[in-house]
Every structure is written in C-alpha cells, then in structure tokens.
Design goal:
This protein has about 260 residues and is an alpha/beta fold. Helix content is about 40%, strand content about 15%. The chain has helices at about 5-15, 20-25, 45-50, 60-75, 85-95, 135-145, 165, 170-175, 190-195, 215-225, 240-255, and strands at about 35, 40, 55, 80, 100, 105-110, 125-130, 150-155, 180-185, 200-205, 230-235. The strands form 3 sheets. Strands 8-7-9-10-11 form a 5-stranded parallel β-sheet. It has a 4-stranded mixed β-sheet with strand order 3-4-6-5, with helices on both faces. Helix 6 (about 135-145) runs parallel beside helix 11.
Length: about 260
C-alpha cells in the first residue's frame, strides 16, 4: 500500500463509500503480515516510498510464490531477486502476469496502483556496464529501477579498454538523474564516468575477471579508491542495492525541480 492509496481509502471512509469495518480489514495486515515462514513488511512503502523486495536465494519455490502472491494482493510492485527457474515456475502459477528474466535472475510484476505523477517527468537512471560479462548484474539493476518507476537507459559494453565506446554515449548520460556503473576486472569504469557527469555514480563491482581479481574484490577496492568524488560503492554483484539507492536519488532530484 502506498501513501496515495492510503489517503484515498481514508477519503472513501470519510465520504461514506467504505465502512470503517471494511477499511479496518484492509489495514489489518499493516505494518506486517505473518504467513508462518515470513513476516511481510507491507508497511515499507508508506515509510520509505519503495516496497519490500523478495530475496529468493535460500528460499524454496513455494515460499517465494506465497510471499509474491500476498504482495500482489496488497497492490504493491513486486520484485524477487536472485531467482532461479524453479522459483519462477512456482510464482507464475500464482501470478501469471509476472515476468521472469533468467539473465538478471529477477521476477517482477508492476504495481496495480496508479503511479504518482510529477510535473518534472519520470526519473531517469542510466545503467552502464564495462563488458557483456557484467550483464547479469547490470540487468538486475535495470530491472529493479524499472519496477520502481524509473526510465532506464541501458548503455552496455562501454569499458575503458575501448574508451571511445563510452564517449560515444556521453550525450545520453546527461539525461540521467543518477548513474549505475557495473564493472569487474580492475573496476576502472566508474572513475571515468564520474569525471563525465554531474550526478551521483553508484559503482557496482562485479565478480568478473581472472584470478587476481579475487572474485570482485580487486574491483571493489579500486572503486573505493576512486579519485572521482561523486562515486559511491555498493557490494560485489549488488545491482539491486545500487538501483534501490539510485531510485531514491532520482526521485529526490525530481522533487527538488
């Protein structure tokens, strides 16, 4: 439930179109709903503006499907990350309209409630990756940003080994309210991007590279030592975390226009 839908419900009660008892039933699952194996935080959208997200890894297909179904009934945009084909098959049984992306390992379904409008337009997030091997993390970030209502610019395979590829999309970067950069190996790309844009850059180290990359640790340390002051770093392969934060940044930028 979003703030807008809560206010609409209260207004319906005030007008007499919805009984207090009916409204009470609809609000009974706030702030959370206990379904045995999980306590679903339906209240999170009201507190933070973004709903709870299902981390599917480590959960059974049945558990993921049950959580997904209850969140769909609540009207929120639903996203499950790190989902496999078994998770997706179970979810599609209860939510046939959901979309499974096997590359990004996400299962998503947009909100059934109308999106809030803003005179400044739709927040825009650019998602870049250094190479095609970084695509799973980049697509997790892109899917997350889209399900939360942002316009996403996908600018892929623009690593520093051929910096002319990055410079070719420089004009597109000016559209973004926030930029997500996914890179493995030595993790240099976010520093270069940070020097080209005037918005926050969310750097995502990926576990791509040969032995001395230490499964993303080298990229992580390189990004943490970036000389571009607008670069901040999330954990290795955490495209979701980067997109969640980028969404909040992009929304704030639009509110301030």
């Amino acid at each position: 439930m979003h703030k807008t839908s809560l206010l609409e419900l209260l207004a319906e009660v005030q007008r007499g179109n919805v009984s207090p008892e009916s409204a009470s039933e609809r609000l009974a699952s706030l702030p959370f709903e206990n379904i045995g194996h999980t306590r679903i935080d339906h209240h999170r959208s009201l507190r933070t503006g973004l709903p709870e997200v299902i981390y599917a890894a480590g959960k059974t297909p049945r558990q993921v499907a049950e959580i997904f179904a209850r969140m769909v009934e609540n009207g929120a945009a639903v996203l499950a990350t790190r989902a496999n084909a078994d998770h997706a098959a179970a979810v599609l049984q209860v939510a046939p309209a959901a979309k499974y992306d096997d590359l990004a390992r996400t299962i998503s379904l947009p909100s059934s409630e109308p999106a809030a409008t803003n005179e400044a337009g739709t927040p825009c997030i650019a998602v870049l990756c250094a190479g095609t091997s970084d695509l799973p993390v980049a697509e997790e970030a892109a899917n997350t940003a889209e399900i939360f209502g942002s316009r996403v610019l996908r600018l892929y395979d623009v690593g520093v080994a051929g910096v002319h590829r990055l410079l070719a999309v420089r004009d597109q970067l000016t559209e973004a309210d926030a930029v997500i950069v996914c890179a493995g190996m030595e993790g240099a790309l976010p520093s270069v991007v940070g020097g080209l844009v005037g918005v926050p850059v969310l750097a995502v180290p990926t576990s791509v590279g040969y032995g001395a990359s230490f499964a993303g640790a080298a990229a992580l340390l390189g990004m943490l030592n970036s000389c571009s002051p607008n670069v901040v770093v999330v954990n290795i392969d955490n495209g979701f975390g980067a997109a969640y934060t980028a969404t909040l940044i992009a929304r704030a930028a639009h509110r301030n226009r």
